[in-house]
Amino acid sequence: MRKFALFALFGGALVMLAVAAGNLGIPPVVITREGEQKLVLLFGEVRAVTQPGISLAIPFLEVIRTYPSGWLYNDTDAQGIQTQDGEQLVIDNYTIWRIQDPLEFMRAFASVEAAEQRIDRVVRDAVREMIGRHTLAGVLKDERVAVMAAITANARRALEGYGIAINDVRINRSELPPGTEESVYARMKTERERLAKKSRAEGDERARKIRAESDRDARVIVANARRESEIERGQGDAEAARIYGEAYSGEPEFYAFVRSLEAYRKTIDAKTTLVLSPDTEFFKYLEGQGRE
Amino acid sequence: MAEGEPENLSTEQRVRRSVARTLGNLTLGTVLVGALGVWLSLGAYTLDPGEAAILLRLGRHVGTVSDEGFHWTLPPPITVRVIENVGMVRNEDFGIASPGESADASALVHESTMQTSDNNIVRISFTVQYRIGDPYAARYLVADLPAVVRSASAAAMREVVGRMTVDGVLRERRAELTAEATSTLQRIFDGYSPEMIEVQAVQLQDAQAPAAVRAAFDDVVAAIQDASRHVNEAQGYQNQVIPNARAEAVELVESAKGYREARIAEATGEAERFKALSVEYRKAPAVTRKRLYLETMEAVLPGVEKVIVKPGQVVPYLPLERAGAAK
Prior knowledge:
The complex is a heterodimer of chains A (292) and B (327). With 292 residues, chain A is α+β, with helices and mostly antiparallel strands. Chain A is 53% helix and 23% strand. Chain A has 7 helices and 9 strands; from the N terminus they run αβββββββααααβααβ. In chain B, helix 4 (145-163) packs across helix 6 and helix 7 crosses helix 8. Chain B is elongated.
């Protein structure tokens, strides 16, 4: 009982110690953490590639090499490139890659840094080649996605067999080289001036059109109303004439008489001087009666 | 158990030894159990809201716990817990000056300067808001996540701006710009590890023309406003002229209608009067005729200067009325 207890105590402590040592990377226990992959090398020969978890190695004889297993980020320095149509661009890109096969990777590269330098070179070449084959407009707009996909594919192909997998090569900045901005600004400025002039002129055009149409519409409205009003008046006159005609045609002579009398009433006033003959009907009885 | 012990011990000594041995065993047991208990208690942990624990058993990912509250796992070094905040919305600013920093600092200018599809240069400052969706992926499947987030955001925004014209970016399609940048960025992240990052929003802080050409851009905006002001004024004129014309039209037509009806009424009236009169006239033509004539003369002559002339000579009529009026 006592022996067992002591054995358990020491055994447990030993395992703990081994695990703790393994966490620090000291065999015989090899602890591979998430995000890592390890090569166990016996006399330079790869004996095992570890997955996250626990594995064993022979202390002192076996050597452990640790590599990252996740996607790695590599920022390539900006480089000046000429597009197919002769425009200068400064392109900055980054690469997402990982160590797919640590064995191949170890054979090809002494370290991750060395691999990064190689990736840099490959990616820069791919970027320069692809962008040199496209116009500035294509790089900026039309074929941007296709260009990046082609660059990624080229880089992927170039790094095949080195244990490297390329996920994505992406342009995160493209700008004009220093000094050429001024000419772009000048062009932008003239373009803006043209647009401003165009806007003002078009506004003026529209405004004048609206005014002219308004005047025309107003004139048409009034003219139509005038036409209608003349028709109305004419109808009134015609109707009146018909009524008069109907009424007077029976007694034309009497009408002439009555109408004349009416006209006298209207036309003869205080300013009128009448030169009358005593022979008129009115004075018939003025000088002596019953002369008849 | 008793092997190797001398046989010649007294009963008392034997009892003492056995007691001491039992006590020793007990003490050892207590220490063992105590040590085990202390070690096991190290496996207890609590999670605050928004926190998640990535559990690594001997280095291997065995699960992610994201429920808040009390939890227990096997203690370290068997199981290692890595606590990550997944609830927090993280911000990455691009081209935004932090307090005390000049907005024209060259790094900021670099960050915010982009080319549009029509080869114009714009300055765009924006903020990317994201959350960690899968803490395990964010921590272990992608190395150097902050750098990835920054570069991918810059790439996404430039890709979207590169598809638009300068007018689209600066005015017409700003909402579209942020929506497309958000979806493009999400797609990029998903290509690295699905659900690793949730892009909440890409917020446009500012989008404007570079300082060197800003005045020209502002003038275009002013020109557009000028144009619309002119058009508005013209529409104001139209709104005045047309109703005026319509009012005039109504006046013309109505007055004409009035004229027509008045004419007809007058004519009818006169005709009726004449008809009535002619009925009487027909009964006694000569008398009626004379009466009408005399009545008219009676009405007309009083106010009139009259000169009565006999045929062949002039007889001046004394202007008595005038004399009377002069008195």
